[in-house]
Design a protein that fits this description.
about 240 residues, alpha/beta, 4-stranded antiparallel sheet
Length: about 240
Amino acid sequence: MSGARLLLVEDDAATRRSVAANLTAHGYHVGEAADGSAALRQWDAERPDLILLDLGLPDIDGGVLIRRVRREATTPILVLSARGAEHDKVDALEAGADDYLAKPFGLDELRARIAALLRRTGGPAADATGTIRLGPVAIDVAARIASVSGAVLDLTPREYELLKTMIASSGRVLTKGRLLRAVWGTAYAEEGHYLHVYVSRLRRKLAEADPTGATRDLIVAEPGVGYRIAEDPARGR
């Protein structure tokens, strides 16, 4: 599994097709939305790794979409807009956008901005390369690859998102509701059985990739609350 998933929100069809084609040619998986309503539906369903957002949408202002996403996740948002006024940039950044690129822009610069934001997606848990490490487990956020002792895990997109979310918060208890909202969206906030199934799959795949047993106690259940990642996987704490 490789190539970050991007959501391109742009109402101009020619611009959207051009940008999407270029990013796809460089290994990204690009979902497209022509307005804010479609963007929110895709956001809820897919949980992309990064959002490219035109502020001037035909149905809702881009700032509304930024604030909605920020209520639920830290997914990086790169604004692409013809609005060049300083107050427009400030408003978008204060609403929760991570970066701003004024139109017209070069595709090389766009890809550089995307790569820089993806490297920072892991937050303070990530190293300079954008990789989150805990014991034998490593998650390359930009490439969307999880591995154990160098062996790449064969994870579905949801399994990857769940492992990344937990590893990035190692040692902290994450409630079932928080994990469900982060990985599946608000519509699944009460679907606790999803977590049980996916955590079981993750534990099995981690064990298969690491016969030494170093990851056996990596995912710790907190009965009635949620899960946490053990800071010392070998000792389960």
